[in-house]
Predict the structure.
Amino acid sequence: MDQSPVKKLKTAHGHLCNVSPLKDSKKQYFEASLQHEGECSDVMVFRPEEHMQFKNAEKIRSQVTLHNVISPLKTNGTSKVYYTHKSSISCVRDLGHAFRNTLPAEAQGIQLSELLKLDQKPKRVNINVKIILEESKGNNVVRDRRRYLPNTVYTVADSTGFISLTVWCQKDINVGKWYNFTNLSTVQFKGKTTLSTTKDTNILNIPSQGTAVDVDVPIESMKCDIIGVNPKRLFICPGNHELKDLILSSPSVYCVSCKTHYKTTASIMKISGRLHLKPEAGEIIRARVEDEVIRSVIAVKSDASQNDILQAFMALPTMQITICNNVIVKMEKSTPQNTLRTGMESQTSLAVMEPVEDLNDFSPPDPGIFSSQPQKRKSTDRF
């Protein structure tokens, strides 16, 4: 290995062995040994999401290259290597071609039932799942980059369980197909675990992995009066960044992320909020609604005030509203032909759904709780 005066290594070559399990701590890590040039270095890896890749490289005896690792001076004759968030690993052998485009056992990642049972969830995971249902589609602000990007929420399942997965940006994903997702982020929201893609996520269509579990997805469609609304306006610059403290009467606005002054009229207003809904039978329901659904029922001018939006909602007649996991996915004017599409008895009442928190940043939607029977979506191999 070539050491620089600042003790940072450009690369470290060798074979991995003795890859340990993930260490149980607040900041997970694992250890390994790197055999190289007639000696062996102790490696400490602070990227737990790459544990599977290290284990697989150990199993197939593939020569690896560790990029941008740090190595202090030898202590007691022992060489140490620190694999940090800036480091990366590459293998001499292309695993996809070596295994004829099938994944090695370690790359299959964690089963959903195991993930949901863990008291301390890993920050990054790999999964093999079937896409069961597209729950909702919209746009929201990515927390770390403050960019307003499209996202789609799916229900996904394997043979052991199911979970909600948010996929950022447009991806070629089809309901009914199996996919391998790597480097997914685990998100805890109101006591529930969901998954989200990251900038490091790779998505690979894979052959069927068998039968996925039956999934009960809470979907309701009902006639409701809108009796309350808590709208929120979000202003976006031409570069899709969130604008803070925009004044519509001002001729220009400065975007900190773009480091550019824009005409205020070039900004785009997005609306979201929580609606309080009164169904024909049952208690009041509180659900979140996003810009795309809102604009399907009300016209919003670019200079609309908070009060303008509020009055437009209040002027709506009785609506036929479809809700999935506490998010409104469809709104339309109620007609005699628009009846309940969930197969429920008309006298069955709905329990109060938990209100969605007013979030400035994205969090995956929180499943609501219904007392009536939800529409059942079963995974089959007919997709």
Observations:
- Residues 51-59 form the longest helix (9 residues).
- Residues 1-6, 94-107, 339-383 have pLDDT under 50 and may be disordered.
